[in-house]
Design goal:
Blueprint (H helix, E strand, L loop, with lengths): L1 H5 L1 H20 L14 H32 L7 H19 L5
Length: 104
């Protein structure tokens, strides 16, 4: 496991996949908006959005964890701002979704 953590390519790759997943999540945002919540298959739209949201959160969290563990082992590693902000955005979007603020 330490060999994976010490490899900077792994954390970067997971971070890139988290960014791409967030891009897909933003493209899926209309599925849970006003237009997508008033159709007969709105439950399927919401389920697909939640799946991508959870995938994005897991990727961003994994990337943050990998970089923080590498930072713990080595001193010259910067703080993973991108992954941390992405994970926080996913949590905010989940709260907004559960509160029903996307279906205004």
């Amino acid at each position: 496991m330490e060999k994976i953590i010490r490899n900077p390519t792994v954390g970067t790759a997971v971070s890139v996949f988290a960014g791409l997943s967030f891009y897909v999540l933003c493209m899926m945002l209309p599925l849970v908006g006003p237009a997508g919540s008033r159709v007969e298959h709105s439950a399927a739209n919401r389920a697909a959005f939640v799946c991508i949201l959870l995938l994005t959160f897991l990727l961003a969290s994994a990337s943050t964890y990998l970089v923080l563990m590498r930072r713990k082992l080595e001193d010259a590693v910067a703080f993973p701002w991108f992954s941390s902000v992405l994970a926080a955005l996913c949590l905010i979007m989940l709260v907004l979704l559960l509160a029903g603020w996307f279906t205004v």
